[in-house]
Amino acid sequence: MKFISGILILIWRIWFYGLVFFTILFALPVLLIVTSHEKFYKSFYKVANAWGKTILFGMGFWAEVQQLQKIEPLKSYMFVANHTSMIDIMLMLAVVKNPCVFVGKEELTKIPLFGYIFKRTSITVNRSDSRSRKEVYDEAQRRLNNGYSICIFPEGLVPEDESVVLAPFKNGAFRLAIEHQIPIVPMTFYDCKKRFSYTFFSGSPGKLRVKIHHFFETNGFTLKDKDILKNAIFELIHDDLISDTSNT
To answer: Strand 100-105 and strand 61-67: pairing?
Structure first.
């Protein structure tokens, strides 16, 4: 029985990679147009939103969202969430309606086809290169100035140790939010690690719960307040995850 279960999980996992690849391939003519110039970014994001929902549906996932504060459609935000899975990006795309630009690791650009589109639409960073980090910061500022939102997983990387509830946050998201005086929207992804972790022979279809917390306003904050803001949001998401685990 365990062997059969392992085979089914293997097929399901392979199906994920095929689903990602072939849905992008199918939409490639449209994607090449809407990623050809930044003026089409809002159109691209509508496609990306539909794609995220398609991947989740195709994998047997569905999002259940608890929203504690309304997101205004024409406003810029800094969206931050815990990072535990490959499906975090799809879940973020499916949940967030405001056109937002992802900041992600450079390694994602090496994924066949997905990486090509990711490179054309997102801000990529080589975290071991100080010059790359500076360029990312400048590009994120430019996108914010153009009225878009930014999405950052502030842990930077998925923790290698799966027992880690939440890895320490990097500074970039909070510094940008303060400098642009935009609200930070903390989000808790409860189920991504359980449903689709980086442990290959694991996971299952099911519900993906998301909590959109009350926003952290940055009006009047200065860069001296960066760590206070970062630590407060870290504790909010960390305690939420711990509380959920305790109640499961």
So the answer is: unpaired
**Whole-number pLDDT of residue 246:** 62
Quickly list DSSP for 154-186: TT-S--SSTT-SSPPPPSHHHHHHHHHT--EEE
57 pLDDT tier (thresholds 50, 70, 90): very high
Reported for 131-138, long-range contacts at CB under 8 A and 24+ positions apart, including other chains, are 132/106, 133/172, 136/103, 136/172, 137/172, 137/175, 137/176
pLDDT in tens, 163-204: 788 999 999 899 999 999 999 999 999 999 999 988 888 899
Structural domains of the chain, with CATH: 2-247 (3.40.1130)
Going by C-alpha positions, the residue among 20, 49, 24 that lies closest to residue 117 is 24
Q: What tokens appear for 25 in the block?
A: 């391939």
**Would you say the C-alpha torsion 209, 212, 214, 215 has a positive or negative sign?**
positive
DSSP summary character for residue 100? E
Say how far apart CA 55 and CA 53 lie, in whole Å: 6
Q: Is the pTM of this model over 0.90?
A: yes
